[in-house]
Amino acid sequence: MIYLKHLHLELPAEVAGYPFDIPALRTLGHLAFTTSVTFLVGENGSGKSTLLEGIGREVGFNVAGGNANHLYQTDQKEAPLADALRLSWFPRTHKGFFMRAESLFHFATFIDENNAEDPGLLQAYGGKSLHVQSHGESFLALFNNRFREGLFLLDEPEAALSPLRQLSLMRIIHDCLPKAQFIIATHSPILLAYPGARILYFDESGMRDIAYHDVPHVQLTQNFLDRPERYLEELFR
Hints:
By secondary structure, the chain is α/β, with parallel strands linked by helices. The protein has helices at 23-26, 48-59, 104-114, 120-123, 135-146, 163-176, 189-192, 216-226, 228-235; strands at 4-9, 30-32, 37-42, 85-89, 96-100, 150-155, 180-185, 198-203, 206-209. α6 links the parallel β6 and β7 (180-185). α5 packs parallel to α6 and α8 (216-226) packs across α9 (228-235). The longest helix has 14 residues, at 163-176.
């Protein structure tokens, strides 16, 4: 399912400074979403998480993580890109979730604190506090219980997942696809291999489509695994 069809960035009159000094965002213009799973990949600071934040804010999700009904705050800054984004939908959906690996602790606290007023809230996340599970287990509990229908924005979901659990996430994504759309910022060569996904690469030249085996993250990982001693010898000389 593809809910979010198009994204257009209208640059403000004054484009100096963050986030419009990021090449991939400054040159973004118009982006059509053509697949149910879209990956954003690039080095740290290349703009992928910033774009994800902007989309989340414009959709109405809590930019600290969650959906429109999760009203809590962290020290997470607002998404300055959102005001310049124009989103086109068919059909429009308010369902979904914005998952930020870095703020899952705050989200888990919000669920625990509000469970007293809404006894069914914790049950919606598997009936067990996310705080009493390992980081990876809490991620999967969230994925398994809340990923059903809508637009899902995931910012580095692999952060707490072992390689095996990353494969589990791929299966969850697969099971949701008849009613879900995913836009995922990631560094994971495993997740990037999802069949039929579109991969958008962010770098100093802008943003472009890229094939799986051409992604630098994939090439580096594969080369390292083929001959780790070569890399370690160079690294520690």
